[in-house]
Design goal:
heterodimer; A: 361 residues; alpha+beta; T-fold; 2 domains; 8-stranded antiparallel beta sheet; 3-stranded antiparallel beta sheet; 37% helix; B: 131 residues; mini-chromosome maintenance (MCM) complex, domain 2; 4-stranded antiparallel beta sheet; 8 strands; rod-shaped
């Protein structure tokens, strides 16, 4: 080989190396520094928990996910009305242990804070979000559980039992002593059911814990109570698709929402229901007035800052006419709603579209 | 001299072709590496198995009397059958869920504590959160 040829070969080799390095570098630049990870967990609030977040490594993400789960577990145990846990002063004490007794019950501070928040929500929703409805809801709960065991087919509770239970649902009989962390039920027949707010409230508390630690780029989804913590790792907003409850309509989603720190909660009749022998559906959101599943809409979605408020509002608005719900939403800053009717009609509050994003499938 | 020049020219063309080929091969390899999603199945948080998305297969996920029949077909995974109560009537049941194929997507069976999730592979272009 001549000298020239050697030089040319060397130059060519150099080109090969440079090309390879360039390919690798371009690829690395394409990839964001942060990767999105997702994990799922059961065991909190009788539902599915999904945590997604951006981190540099899977270990870093898992460490944060573990902290989130630990916090959720704490709130789950505190707000559990059916089970007792060693060393936990939870709602079970009020509902089961001392049920029917006229006594002052000491509970955890976190419970007091949640109950006070629930009382605020009662005022805000014209009494539709009422945690004092436990006696009525526990009857529906039992019938639903029975249907669950029977492949989703069951009976509905007798109306006279529901009416009798509804005598004991006055929120003013829930006496809270903030200073001493105690609860007193002035009506001993009364029961608490925090199902319409506890999940959302707990998610909010956990999200606040992350924010206080400066953690961002996460989204928590506990049974449809969604709370974003900051935007995505790449600075874009999280895009939430609200699933179309009408199975006969082609569109998979009724709306796409962009979120960076907000919560979105949907209450829907399709989420949980059972059938009677004639094939009629009975879902899980009970109207305090009719004592039957509310039948105004098939779904109500709320966007707001506080996931607990979103949870409570979505349940309450599901149980009231459109006009009444719209008046509540329009009176609140930074809170928007979307109602989906049985026939597929959709109504949105005045500022809802400011959260909507384009999506080209 | 003229012949030498021609030789050099030929060499350059040859080497350029080699460079191009290597570049293409490297690119193809890198692209190929991005694929390769898999289906990870966990029961109560414990790994049950990992299955390639690129191979059509039927997996019976069994734990005691509980079972979910997972089907991987054409790069997508779905649950064909499960013996949990209410499996046919509940909107949220695993058998009513759309097939999954993108990284991070999952199908959950709360009754059986089963999580079927896509690991690796491409990230989807759909919504980040489905509710």
């Amino acid at each position: 080989m001549s000298k020239k040829q050697i030089i040319i070969t060397l130059i060519a080799l150099l080109l090969v190396v440079v090309t390879l390095i360039a390919v690798i570098l371009i690829r690395e630049e394409d990839e964001p520094e942060l990767t999105r990870f997702t994990t799922n967990a059961f065991g909190y609030f009788d539902t599915v928990t999904t945590i997604s977040g951006y981190a540099e490594t899977g270990e870093e993400f898992q460490a944060i996910a573990d902290q989130i789960c630990a916090e959720l577990k704490t709130y789950h145990q505190l707000f559990d009305i059916y089970n007792r846990y060693e060393g936990v002063e939870n709602l079970y004490k009020i509902n089961k242990l001392y049920s029917g007794e006229h006594r002052v019950i000491t509970v955890d501070r976190k419970i007091i804070d949640m109950l006070l928040y629930a009382k605020e929500m009662y005022q805000l929703t014209n009494g539709k979000m009422n945690i004092a409805m436990g006696s009525v809801l526990s009857i529906w709960h039992d019938y639903r559980e029975e249907a669950d065991e029977n492949f989703g087919v069951g009976e509905i509770p007798p109306m006279d039992a529901l009416v009798a239970a509804a005598e004991h649902t006055d929120i003013n009989d829930l006496i809270i002593d903030e200073e001493n962390c105690t609860v007193f039920l002035a009506d001993p027949e009364m029961k608490l059911d925090v199902g319409a707010i506890a999940k959302g409230y707990a998610v909010e508390m956990v999200a606040k814990m992350l924010e206080e630690r400066g953690i961002t780029g996460y989204v928590l989804n506990v049974g449809g109570n969604i709370r974003t913590v900051g935007a995505k790792g790449n600075g874009e907003k999280w895009m939430a698709g609200i699933e179309n409850p009408g199975l006969d309509i082609d569109e998979s989603y009724t709306a796409y929402i962009g979120l960076a720190g907000e919560a979105v909660v949907t209450s829907g009749s399709y989420q949980r229901y059972f059938l009677d022998k004639n094939g009629n559906e009975y879902h899980h959101i009970i109207d305090g007035e009719t004592l039957m599943p509310a039948d105004y809409f098939v779904a109500v979605s709320i966007i707001c800052k506080h996931s607990g408020m979103g949870d409570g509002l979505s349940t309450a608005l599901f149980c009231m006419p459109l006009e009444e719900g719209m008046a509540i939403i329009e009176s609140l800053d930074g809170v928007e709603a979307m109602w989906t009717f049985e026939d597929g009609t959709i109504v949105k509050s005045s500022g809802f579209s400011s959260f909507e994003v384009e999506y080209n499938s | 001299m003229a012949e030498n020049k021609k030789k050099v020219k030929n060499d350059i063309i040859f080497i350029a072709a080699v460079v191009l080929l290597i570049g293409l091969a490297a690119g193809a390899m890198l692209l190929f590496r991005e694929e390769g999603g898999a289906v990870e199945v966990k029961i109560d948080g414990k790994l049950y198995g990992t299955y390639s998305l690129s191979k059509d297969q039927v997996i019976e996920i069994r734990s005691g009397d509980d079972y979910n029949i997972l089907v991987i077909e054409g790069g997508k995974a779905y649950v064909r059958e499960a013996n949990c109560p209410g499996a046919d009537t509940y909107f949220n049941k695993c058998t009513n869920k759309k097939p999954i194929s993108y990284r991070g997507e999952s199908i959950l069976c709360k009754e059986h504590g089963v999580v079927i999730a896509i690991i690796g592979g491409k990230e989807g272009e759909g919504p980040d959160i489905i509710m």
